[in-house]
């Protein structure tokens, strides 16, 4: 959303904001959810369906014709062919201060959980695309600049071999996902992450055989078994034996979404 706000601000686009003010009963989005609309584009969602379609139409009419901020109370029933069963109150207004909106979006992003993705190989590239869709701060790290390819919007790609500094700067409660080109590097990063014992998720690509070998090495450097037990390896293990990068990425993204966002 932040990237869209910057683009529209720089282009001088008129923007309307649609916000769920009140949500009662079964509703597709919660109070506080919002989306932004221009004459031709939109970003975010208030839940889709006829609810969103009608609100977008009103927002675009407001942008064209002007007028004051308005509110709509919308029962989600037969009248709009949307049978959620609840009701929402929606506010629609023209954005008059794009700089303030950008600051708000930036603050929202800074409040998101952080996930560090080590490795820009074929699975790393697939994961970066998939994880970029989640409400996380994704930092993507590799020393090989040419391996990244196109970096998805909102992803912080860092070309560095100094993984220790990146890990040291990672806040408690963050996640670490390790899939480098080197088993030695995988072991170093994963061992250091487990030794911290304050991360929400530590995942490493690999088989159960790789895990057993690494567990022995971790015990040899005095990492406690209860810390080792927190390691997720294999990652994305939903019992589907498909090793295509896109499939691995899909399952790992689901795993991380459940760990970070399922509470």
From TrEMBL:
Question: Which residues does the UniProt record annotate as the domain XdhC- CoxI?
Answer: 8-72
Superkingdom: Bacteria
Q: InterPro entries under this entry?
A: MoCofactor_Util/Proc, Xanthine_DH_XdhC, XdhC_CoxI, XdhC_Rossmann_dom
Protein name stated in the entry: Xanthine dehydrogenase accessory protein XdhC
Q: Where is the XdhC Rossmann domain?
A: 115-256
Origin organism is Gluconobacter japonicus
């Amino acid at each position: 959303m932040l990237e869209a706000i910057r683009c529209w601000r720089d282009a001088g686009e008129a923007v309307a904001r649609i916000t769920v003010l009140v949500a009662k009963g079964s509703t597709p989005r919660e109070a506080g959810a919002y989306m932004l609309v221009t004459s031709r584009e939109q970003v975010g969602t208030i839940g889709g369906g006829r609810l969103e379609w009608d609100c977008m139409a009103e927002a675009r009419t407001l942008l064209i014709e002007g007028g004051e901020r308005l509110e709509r109370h919308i029962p989600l029933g037969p009248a709009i062919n949307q049978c959620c069963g609840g009701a929402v109150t929606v506010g629609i207004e023209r954005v008059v201060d794009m700089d303030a909106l950008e600051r708000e979006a930036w603050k929202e992003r800074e409040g998101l959980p952080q996930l560090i993705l080590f490795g820009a190989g074929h699975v790393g590239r697939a994961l970066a695309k998939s994880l970029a869709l989640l409400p996380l701060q994704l930092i993507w790290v590799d020393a090989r600049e040419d391996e990244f390819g196109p970096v998805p919007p909102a992803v912080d790609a860092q070309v560095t071999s100094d993984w220790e500094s990146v890990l040291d700067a990672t806040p408690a409660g963050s996640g670490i996902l390790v899939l480098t080109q080197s088993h030695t590097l995988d072991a170093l990063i994963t061992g250091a992450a487990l030794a911290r014992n304050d991360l929400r998720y530590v995942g490493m690509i690999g088989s159960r055989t790789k895990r057993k070998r690494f567990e022995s090495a971790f015990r040899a450097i005095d990492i406690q078994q209860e810390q080792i037990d927190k390691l997720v390896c294999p990652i994305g293990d939903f019992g589907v034996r498909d090793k295509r990068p896109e499939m691995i990425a899909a399952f790992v993204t689901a795993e991380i979404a459940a760990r970070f966002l399922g509470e």
